[in-house]
Amino acid sequence: MKFRAKIIGKGSLDLFIQVSSTVARLVKVCVLRVCPDRICFGSAGSGGLQEARLWCEVQQRAFQHFRMEGVSEELNEIHLELMAEHLSRAARSAVGASSLKLQLTHKRCPCLTVVVELASPLGRVRSVMHDLPVRVLPRRVWRDCLPPSLNASDVSIYLPRWRMLRSIVERMVNVGDHVLLEANLSGKMTLSIETEVVSIKSYFKNLGNPPKSAVGVPQNRDLESMVQVRVDNRKLLQFLEGQQINPPTALCNIWDNALLHLVLVQEDVSLQYFIPAL
């Protein structure tokens, strides 16, 4: 197995820093899946949906140099388990750097080595190396590391402005533990929370819906019919506070009373977060 990649340029470096920081805010331990055309970050553990799960993909074109060899020609992939905060901390040291290198190494134990090259005012290059311990996952557990396989959602809708949505959810966290999210195929969405002493409901309209064919929503669904899902308020807030990517496209898919699926899409990055219903 071999893996080596290099990022050059402020835009690409900032993007990788944002991705690694977002992953670290959403999961403690992550699985890094290296493929010939991309790298993926996923939640560690079973692939079920008993708890919130993350899946993030960074396309190969985000790297200026990228080379990998998997466990075999038939299974040309590498799966590594590591502490997400360790990678985030190493990536943050690349702020203002000229390049960042990732390499799979073996130093007493398997490591993901991150080398950051910093240019000094005198034109000299100083290298900072981080050796992050990893666990190479055997093939028998690879299936557990994949994102959930799902049927078409009942509703797909674009999310409202990020700061406004986060501010509303922050207030609701102080009221109760569970938030009810409802949406339909006419661009309407509501967020509500209710306790014995207080009831709060926020309304959004004209949010827009992706084409049904693009997201797999059933063609015969009533446009005005609301689909709902009740989720852990803190998990939703964790996602809203944790993402650092600032993508042009943000949407959510809802399976009625079953699952909330949040999706962020940027040119070279896509991030998915799955929150099961309560």
Output the strand order for the largest sheet: 10-6-2-3-4-18-17-16-11
**In this structure, how is the largest beta sheet organized?**
9 strands, antiparallel
Amount of helix: 10-25%
In whole angstroms, the N-to-C terminal distance is: 41 Å
* Proportion in β-strands: 35-45%
Unreliable spans: none
Q: Give me the secondary-structure category.
A: alpha+beta
Mean pLDDT level: 91
Q: What is the string of helix and strand elements?
A: EHEEEEEHEEEEEHEEEHEHEEE
Q: What is the CA-atom radius of gyration, in angstroms?
A: 20 Å
Number of strands: 18
**How would the global form be characterised?**
globular
| SS element count, helices | 5
Q: Any key phrases for this structure?
A:
278 residues; alpha+beta; nine-stranded antiparallel β-sheet; 43% strand
Structure description:
It is a single chain. With 278 residues, this protein is an alpha+beta fold. The chain has helices spanning 10-26, 84-92, 162-173, 212-215, 233-242, and strands spanning 2-8, 29-35, 38-43, 53-59, 65-69, 78-83, 99-107, 109-119, 125-133, 135-136, 155-158, 178-183, 189-194, 199-204, 227-232, 249-255, 259-265, 269-276. The protein is 19% helix and 43% strand. The longest helix is centred in the first third of the chain and has 17 residues, at 10-26. The N and C termini lie far apart (41 Å). The mean pLDDT is 91.
Q: How would you summarize this macromolecular structure in one to three sentences?
A:
The protein is α+β, with helices and mostly antiparallel strands and 278 residues long. It has five helices and 18 strands.
